Structure prediction request, 234 residues.
Amino acid sequence: MTPFALSSPLDAAALAGEFAHHGRVRIRNFLAASAAERLHQCLLDEVPWKLVCDERGTAVVLKDASRVSEQQIMPAVIGQARDRFQYLYCSYPMVTAYLRGDDPGLLLHRVLEWLNEPRLLELIRDITGITTLRKADAQATWYRPGHFLTLHDDGGATGEMRRVAYVLNLTRRWQADWGGLLHFVDERGDVAASWRPEFNTLVLFRVPVRHTVSQVAPFAGEPRFAITGWFRDS
Prediction:
């Protein structure tokens, strides 16, 4: 078994039907149990996390993910979030780190390679019906209490060719009242669907679509971990 083997053969036709109808789909128990456990352990103990937030469309990376750094920037970030796109969470930029050769031996480098393997890309093409998908990017994310991601549609800059957003959730025993929910928002501003981050569940949704991640509650009892990014045409 490879480190990132799927749990079992998936019913790609059924998943494709759901994606075609709703523009989104959840694939529960996506990875083999041992692979999901190993990846969770990596995120918990091995990743050198950095805090990130937005500055007028550019990601600002803080030197560390300490609570002191977070407390220093939290008032300004919260104030900005009232009127414009903003986020605050811990991140590991998997593509950038891979290309620079950072953190040799970190399991996340193998994850990025696996996300771009021909067999996995073919599966995603089969489920989404988008035959032009050619590669995936990725970042690891950790939402702690107070962290959030405000409303946006993942449209991205011209030429980025984002077609399908994905979230591989690696969060244990998450409860709805802990926040950190992925909300899909309709044209009227109402929540059309709200998905809890279930452990070892892959979420796929068509780009662009308006969505947000609600603020994590101060009493959340588990770290909210995920691998997230986009499948792209180029």
Q: What stands out?
A: The longest strand covers residues 224-232.
